[in-house]
Specification:
two-stranded antiparallel ribbon; globular; binds BIS(adenosine)-5'-pentaphosphate
């Protein structure tokens, strides 16, 4: 199954993609995780995009499109994938059509107020990308990853100014994709406000998995 998870920052796309990938084996491809991994390893790509991610702006289309095209050519993505965070602009969506087909676009819907609560309480295990929330999904020991016991961090783009910018960028550049995929009749809306188990159950129902 070839899926796109669309929605504002903090709506739970990564959390749900990771759960779905664990339960079905469909690879979870997050452009944000790929960029953050490159930043962590200080690759040429990582050095180029660090300031962009920290501000909450978008990485240029050409760079992002090439990255995804190459990733989708890998063997594990041949029969299916969950694209989390791509496409994020109309040119990215147009480009994707030239190298892949999509079965469903799941649109995670969440209010601005909830988005801010979720992002400001998010904590991440840097090495694995495992994500927690101080209130909604706390680790067993405060501030520590459940599996390794290592320190959790706050993403630089989860600071208040970067969150505001990411939301503006989302409304200007990414939200038009809702109409884009509605017209193609592959958009499925999901209310992302309930607790994770409930959202996940609805997601599986929607995809008939
Ligand atoms: P990316 O990593 O994709 O960030 P994002 O889209 O802003 O999404 P987030 O990871 O912030 O949120 P999410 O929806 O995955 O929520 P999560 O599951 O973590 O991109 C980062 C940056 O990379 C971009 O700003 C850009 O610079 C660049 N980039 C990436 N893709 C690009 C592209 N295509 N083009 C150009 N640039 C690109 O959940 C959030 C929190 O809520 C967590 O704490 C979680 O535990 C909690 N939570 C989740 N679900 C629930 C629930 N149901 N109830 C309560 N809490 C919940």
């Amino acid at each position: 199954m070839k899926l796109i998870f669309l929605g504002p920052p903090g709506a739970g796309k990564g959390t749900m993609a990771s759960r779905l990938s664990d339960s079905t084996g469909i690879p979870h491809i997050s452009t944000g995780d790929i960029f953050r991994d490159n930043i962590g390893r200080q690759t040429d790509l990582g050095v180029k995009v660090k300031a962009i991610l920290d501000r909450g702006d978008l990485v240029p289309d050409e760079l992002t499109i090439d990255l995804v095209r190459n990733r989708l050519e890998q063997e594990d993505a041949r029969n299916g994938f969950i694209l989390d965070g791509f496409p994020r602009t109309i040119p990215q969506a147009d480009a994707l059509e030239t190298f892949s087909s999509i079965d469903h676009v799941v649109n995670f819907d969440l209010s601005r107020e909830e988005i801010i609560k979720r992002l400001s309480g998010r904590r991440v295990h840097k090495a694995s990308g495992r994500t927690y929330h101080v209130v909604f999904n706390p680790p067993r020991n405060a501030g520590k990853d459940d599996e390794t016991g290592e320190e959790l961090i706050t993403r630089p783009d989860d600071q208040v100014d970067a969150i505001k910018n990411r939301l503006e960028v989302y409304w200007k550049q990414t939200a038009p994709l809702i109409e884009y995929y509605k017209k193609k009749e592959i958009l499925r809306d999901i209310d992302a406000s309930p607790a994770p188990d409930e959202v996940f159950a609805k997601l599986k129902g929607l995809l008939r998995i």
